[in-house]
């Protein structure tokens, strides 16, 4: 690997870009793919290898590709870490946080109400006691981030949703019935969000699996987040 | 998957300090193998290494090859099977194979 390429690679990783390093295994020639663009390296990677690199990034798993040109290429992927921000240190968040952690997410529960966001209620979970919009501004959701608004309180949920919808977050969900959500859509429209931005909200939150208890709702939310991340296999 | 993100930063630091550096990456596994595809090991000219490409059974061989590749600059694709790697960790000795690509960090 060329030193300059390593610098570009390390910079892309630091900036949490979607990055893949393609190496031709018989001679070591390399190409760096950052956010879908060739960002360095002397290798002209064939189209089928570039496609495989995108697929590897989506699958979150590196792979060796036997390309149509008769050479083998290795795709090393550098996806930024998955993160989940839960707005509201509520009952559902207590179930969702450990589930998301098991699925590989770094979880932060955001709630400025001290009585809710206690270490006793959220052992081993990062708790952020800033106001949700302020916290999200600082935490900067990216395309490997999911955001769930769970407080049922527009004072807390709405500013968080406005910030989340203007980020690259791959998933933005909000708790609340259809009726609650209709009122929310109206409020968010008045706050200057475009209809297509508001449409990104998954609401009522979670896949429709008839969930009742907080844990079941957490399962439906985690399933919906997974679907947004991975895409359906179309079986 | 885990890509041990700090290893490549460490490799750059070694190079900044004037050391020759080689990078080994697991590019294929078959059967049981202790470390997944993408796992990396970095080596410098003083035989210091960080990271891992197996449970510890092939690291020695990979470091030896890496020291050689640091000098020649010619990258190599190494293949290890059970017979090469003498002893996989208990419970993993069921036909594991691993391919490791080793390259020099060029100036």
Tally of separate helices of chain A:
8
CATH fold category name of the largest domain in chain A = Rossmann fold
Question: How would you sum up the global shape of chain B?
Answer: globular
Oligomer: heterodimer
Number of helices of chain B: 2
SSE series of chain B: HEEEHEE
Main sheet of chain B, how many strands, which sense, barrel? 5 strands, antiparallel
Return the structural class of chain A. alpha/beta
Organism (chain A): Marivibrio halodurans
Protein name (chain A): XdhC family protein
Domain XdhC Rossmann (chain A): 84-225
Domain XdhC- CoxI (chain B): 14-81
Could you describe the 3D structure shown?
The complex is a heterodimer of chains A (235) and B (107). Chain A has eight helices and eleven strands. By secondary structure, chain A is α/β, with parallel strands linked by helices. Chain A folds into two domains: 3-78, no CATH class; 83-230, Rossmann fold (3-Layer(aba) Sandwich). In chain A, the strands form two sheets. Chain A has a six-stranded parallel beta sheet, with helices on both faces. A five-stranded antiparallel beta sheet of chain A has the order 3-2-1-5-4, sandwiched between helices. In chain A, helix 3 (91-102) crosses helix 8 (214-230) and helix 4 (132-139) packs parallel to helix 5 (154-165). Chain B has helices at 5-16, 59-72; strands spanning 21-30, 40-44, 49-51, 76-80, 97-104. Chain B has a five-stranded antiparallel beta sheet, with helices on both faces. Chain B is globular. Residues 1-5 and 87-92 of chain B have low confidence and may be disordered. Chain B has one domain (5-104). Helices cover 24% and strands 29% of the residues of chain B. The longest helix of chain B has 14 residues, at 59-72. Classes of the chains: A alpha/beta (235), B alpha+beta (107). The interface between A and B is medium-sized, with 23 and 24 residues.
């Amino acid at each position: 690997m060329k030193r300059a390429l390593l610098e570009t690679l390390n910079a892309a990783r630091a900036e949490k870009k979607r990055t893949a390093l393609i190496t031709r295994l018989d001679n070591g020639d390399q190409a760096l793919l950052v956010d879908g663009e060739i960002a360095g390296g002397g290798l002209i990677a064939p189209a089928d290898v570039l496609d495989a690199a995108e697929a590897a990034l989506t699958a979150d798993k590196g792979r060796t590709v036997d390309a149509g040109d008769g050479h083998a290429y290795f795709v090393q992927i550098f996806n930024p870490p998955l993160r989940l921000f839960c707005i509201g240190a509520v009952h559902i968040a207590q179930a969702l946080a450990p589930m998301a952690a098991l699925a590989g997410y770094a979880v932060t529960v955001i709630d400025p109400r001290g009585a809710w966001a206690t270490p006793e209620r959220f052992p081993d979970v990062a708790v952020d006691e800033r106001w949700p919009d302020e916290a999200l501004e600082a935490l900067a959701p990216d395309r490997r981030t999911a955001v769930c608004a769970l407080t049922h309180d527009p004072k807390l949920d709405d500013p968080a949703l406005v910030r989340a919808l203007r980020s690259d977050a791959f998933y933005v969900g909000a708790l609340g019935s259809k009726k609650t959500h209709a009122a929310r859509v109206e409020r968010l429209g008045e706050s200057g969000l475009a209809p297509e931005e508001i449409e990104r909200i998954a609401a009522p939150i979670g896949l429709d699996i008839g969930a009742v208890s907080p844990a079941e709702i957490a399962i439906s939310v985690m399933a919906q987040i997974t679907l947004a991340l991975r895409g359906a296999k179309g079986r | 998957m885990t890509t041990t993100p700090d290893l490549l930063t460490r490799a750059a630091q070694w190079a900044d300090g004037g050391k020759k550096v080689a990078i080994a990456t697991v590019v294929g596994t078959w059967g049981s193998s202790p470390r997944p595809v993408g796992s990396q090991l970095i080596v410098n000219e003083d035989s210091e290494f960080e990271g891992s490409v197996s449970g510890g059974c092939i690291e020695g061989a990979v470091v030896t090859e890496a020291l050689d590749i640091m000098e020649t600059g010619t990258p190599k694709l190494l293949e290890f099977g059970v017979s090469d790697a003498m002893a996989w960790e208990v419970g993993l000795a069921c036909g594991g194979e691993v391919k490791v690509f080793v390259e020099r960090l060029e100036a």
